[in-house]
Amino acid sequence: MTRTRNAALFCCLAAAWGAAFMAIKAGLGGPDAPGPFYETPVLFAAVRYDVAGVLMLGYAAVVLDDPLPRTRAQLAEVTVGAVFLIAAYHAFLFVGELNTTSAAAATIVSLSPVLTTAIARGLLPSDRLDAAGLVGLLLGLVGAVIIADPFGQAELLTANVLGKLLVFAATLSFAFGSVLARRIDSGLDVEAMEAWSMLGGALLMHVVSLGLGEPAGSVGLTMEALLALGYLSVVASALGFLVYFDLLERLGPVEINLVSYVAPVFAAVTGYLFLREAIDATTVVGFLVIVVGFVLLKRDAIRAEVRSVRGGPVQGDD
């Protein structure tokens, strides 16, 4: 019963986070069909986390005895979360999705566990990557290049390629911020860390939006805009992270990382159903290469997870 429940929640989370890429694209549109937030992508991301941050802070206030960051280490961890996990990640992602599809963006973001493992090991002298791990990292990067397809364009840096490079920059920001936050390990409850990071990141994105001169007055409060914001803020962010926290405790970091590899499937399906986005062969091939890279990097942890499920002895971990 518990395993069925976990599997159902896992699929719900993958669906919620996968469809989020479609919701972002619906709000942004593209050069040929601009959406309500086409001229204000960073503002779009900021408002998403205004709402999600308030909801998450309310939840943290209910479930935690003290949701406030008190020590310098806790403030540092929240700052890292706000700058890298929320502001940089989502600013790059939302701008990048102006010129790429939901499926391509989700697939590039699925590189995050590969980059996170590589960065963590690179910063820890006692835990360097071995030959197989280096091959896994290289395969992950090759997969990202295949998806970007820079050599299949008439010009090397077309808008489409630049969009995918921005999504890659978002993924790199998230991976780097995840490692920094883990290294600080301030002891702040994860719900509080997420809530304050969301609000701090939203504030930073509002500043960036103003600095870029995004015309807030150009946003029309259409039903499409409200649905995109509501889905991203409530379903993908607030409810999504609550499910994530629950599964992280039950399944551990290895299995929950696999959400990144299921989400692109839902991104591709919802992108096709709602936005008629085509799923090209390069995205599929790049996705498969990234998955192989992840398996090579996390082979010990995956092996240990399989043994634990089968009831055998657990040895080694990534």
From TrEMBL:
It is a multi-pass membrane protein. The keyword Transmembrane applies. GO terms for cellular component: membrane. The chain crosses the membrane at residues 46-64, 76-96, 102-124, 131-149, 161-181, 193-213, 225-244, 256-275, 281-297. Residues 9-147, 162-297 form the EamA domain. It is found in: Membrane. Keywords: Membrane, Transmembrane, Transmembrane helix. The keyword Transmembrane helix applies. PANTHER family: EAMA DOMAIN-CONTAINING PROTEIN, INNER MEMBRANE TRANSPORTER. This is DMT family transporter. It comes from Halomarina salina.
